[in-house]
Amino acid sequence: MKPGSFLRFARRLPLSGKVGLTLVVFWIVIAVVGPxxxxxxxxxxxxxxxxxxxxxxxWFGSDFLGRDVLTRLLVGARFTVGLSAVAVTLxxxxxxxxxLTAAVGPRWLDELLSRLMDxxxxxxxxxxxxxxxxxxxxxxxxxxxxxxxxxxxGNFRIARSLAIGLTKLDYVExxxxxxxxxxxIALVEMLPNMIRPLxxxxxxxxxxxxxxxxxxxxxxxxxxxPDADLGSLVRENVSGLGEGALAIMVPAIAIASLTVxxxxxxxxxxxxxxx
Amino acid sequence: xxxxxxxxxxxLCVTVKGPDGAxxxxxxxxxxxxxxxxxxxxxxxxxxxxxxIALALMGFGRGGAVISGNIRVGDATLDGASGTTLASxxxxxxxxxxxxxxxxxxxxxxxxxxxxEPALIHRTASATQARARAxxxxxxxALPSPETIGSRYPHELSGGQLQRLMAAMALITKPDLVIFxxxxxxxxxxxxxxxxxxxxxxxxxxxxxxVYVSHDLAVVAQMADQILVLNRGTVREQNAxxxxxxxxxxxxxxxxxxxxxxxxxxxxxxxAQPEPLLTxxxxxxxxxxxxxxxxxxxxxxxxxxxxxxxxxxxGVxxxxxxxxxxxxxxxxxxxxxxxxxxxxxxxxxxxTVAGRTREQLRxxxxxxxxxxxxxxxxxxxxxxxxxxxxxxxGMKGPEAQRRVTELLDLIRLPASVADRRCDELSGGQKQRVxxxxxxxxxxxxxxxDEVTSALxxxxxxxxxxxxxxxxxxxxxxxxxxxxDIATVKALCDEIVVLYKGTRVESGSCDTYTAPPFHPYTxxxxxxxxxxxxxxxxDETAQLQVPFAHLAEQSDLCRxxxxxxxxxxxxxxxxxPPLRAMSAGNAVLCHRTEAELAAPHVLKV
Lengths: 275, 604
What we know:
- The complex is a heterodimer.
- By secondary structure, chain A is mainly alpha-helical.
- Chain A has a single domain, classed as Orthogonal Bundle (MetI-like fold).
- Chain A is built from eleven helices and no strands.
- The longest helix of chain A is centred in the first third of the chain and has 36 residues, at 69-104.
- By secondary structure, chain B is α/β, with parallel strands linked by helices.
- Chain B has three domains: 7-259, Rossmann fold (3-Layer(aba) Sandwich); 276-512, Rossmann fold (3-Layer(aba) Sandwich), CATH 3.40.50.300; 519-603, no CATH class.
- Chain B is 33% helix and 23% strand.
- In chain B, the strands form four sheets. Chain B has an eight-stranded mixed sheet with strand order 16-17-18-13-19-20-22-21, sandwiched between helices.
- In chain B, β17, α18 (457-474) and β18 (477-482) form a beta-alpha-beta unit.
- The termini of chain B are far apart.
- Chains A and B meet through α7 of A and α15 of B.
């Protein structure tokens, strides 16, 4: 995307979309440059006091072990944004790709894929992760794969129902009558008309993935200390909840602003006349 | 109170937010009166603001529209009224009959409960009283078995019956004003007559005051006392029905009156004996699984044959459910026939698209009724046309671009349309693009499936003219499918009448101007509203149907349960023979030519 067209896109967004765009851009910037801005080492115990409040030395206070929250936030954002973005892209591409195959393919293939996805959806995600981590050991690649496999069936179901609805429409029939191949019908006639509802779904799934990653981290299946994503920052400081410590508030607000920003942007970008 | 008109609207304006954020006036300074017991028709093409005015009468503005002006109904003033005041008026003093009654009824509740609901909500009657009144209204609306019809669910009733039930719902509270919003537009022409007759009778009996919104001048001529002609939100002309139809003052009104009768200017070249191009022989088709005896669960077509000559236009007419769209789908290869053959230039075509060559596919193109869903909203016009050019002719780049411009010129749209997406075009423009996509293939035959049905009369006329011009200039043949015999007559030189999937009559266009016809053709022709007042009154004489109690049987005449001239001992025993009439048309009927030609036979 050229800078000019990006600016034009941004200007045409409604206010909510602009807020969303600002938040998303902010978090992407943090994810890219955050680790270079850290005032301390992310694993260092720098404060005498645990759950300290805001001070000029520690802007966001200290956590349950006396580490600098700002530092850990700057480092953790990269994991959350990066892992979730990769996982959601993988999940959406696989799910939608299979859904289109099912919609334009023969009946038995649709049946086979649908039952396969039903089987997958019936496995609890955390148990699935537990088994996988036990079998292969925890790594970033494995985590991404686990999370994306978990969210493929949901995306598949939504994309398939959208695609099946589209196959009944006249323009798809016209293309069929013209003699177009299945690939053309799936990618040119159907996919562009599924983008809007699918984007909303992807936004939602992004939020779920952030939450699942945090949950896995809490169970010790996710990122291994001293690395930590935003979710594990919340989980590890959960004992500070009673006293309203900044160490738990700040990462929670960070997750909220990231997910709300993504959803605002997607809503605005897909509902208006913005292409 | 005597000096005051019953409904008085002054300086009504409706303003919405335009696409650029600036306020846009969609109804501009409209004033009118309706006297008690009279019906005022609002007429105009789509976008003229007629529905907006009708909704504004109930104090309702769609999508945040702002209503200003004075609206008085009876002794209630509606402008500036609050939500609760409006709620107490709506459904009680002012009621509304929507275009699609089938979509307006709740499918999970019995009809009677929904019909009496307004009376119960507004406490104008007890449930027992309301039920009694509902049954009285059902009887006035000529609904079958008025005592028990209410206990059915909406899906068990036909579209015409639901539309009448909705009128009963609107009249249950004895309202001051009933608003009819295109109540018969979605109905078949034969059903429309029945519904219009029922509406008229009930209006006279109940002495109701109404506003009737329609785009069809001929329908309005039967229903209304006064007509208000609208164009782009302003009043063009207002007058009583007869003077307005006979001597329209405004230029726009004249155009509407002229467009009511589709006439095509371009005369196609007369080919004495056109060589057959597309031959459809003894086609049967349907949907659903096949049973052991080889019959389909839902048979639609049985034994339909027709031939389209090179450069000819063949019309297929019939009401909904007659299988006319299925004919197009079978020919296009979207639905495999269970029997019969289709051949192009003498070469048989494979039953489905998968078995046909690209060249065969190119020569037969299909155009669907609804351009809103027939054009992919994700692509712009240039892409849609360009894809066809590349697919069939391998055209790319500047060559394709030039051809797109040519095609747009052919359908009389500016070249700039190529860069626009379909949702930015008007209904008529979309239908032209829809047609251009078929033309891009340079086809020999275009299958037009109800291409003018969703359009206004004025736009319809323009599209018909375009079709006739293209036929003259390009020599393309049409299979033109429609439910409207007037449209088909204007364009086609041969007409096939389908009833419940059987061909009941076929012949050249001229044979449809005077009897003998098949009794169903006769019903179709007589059902088309004429542009004069009092037409409906002439038609009120209900014909006796001797076999109305019989269910339809596939081995007898399908039309038997509705036929007014059926002969006992013949029609209910044997299948009808195909009789050749001296005028050249073939009729599937037991009656002889002499019997069908004599007008009195219909009153036997």
